[in-house]
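Progress against Task 2.4 (sequence-to-structure conversion) is shown through the following example record, which the project officer requested during the mid-term review.
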Amino acid sequence: MYKFALAFVLAVTLLVEFRESSADYINGKVLVTINNTLSNNKKLIVHCKNKDDDLGTVDIAPRHAYQFYANKSSRENTSYNCDFTFDNKLHWFHVYDQNIDSSFCRKVCYYEADENRICRYLSFMKNDMRYRQCFKWNRY
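Structure tokens generated for the chain above:
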């Protein structure tokens, strides 16, 4: 009887611990960082928003970064889209989509933006190097 009670208490404790850590992960925040790697000291103008929040427009100086927190949700998908302006051209990119990116960006989504593409550096290492995915710019 004692072993059964001990096993039951241990199982309940582990279940509660798992549920709390899962809730923290799901309802946590992801830091989205966008680094300006444009050539010739050009500024990068960024405007990010989701369906509930407009984060406004920011000018990112050359070799500087802009950061914001994307709040994960357990009830619905969190998604942020950003407009990028440089060289008098407007581009857009989905910088965070919880359904897609939560496996890639566990706590941080780090991007580098240049004239040709935007690259996301993934949270995990591959062959002792940070792995990255690059995407061509979406145009309006």
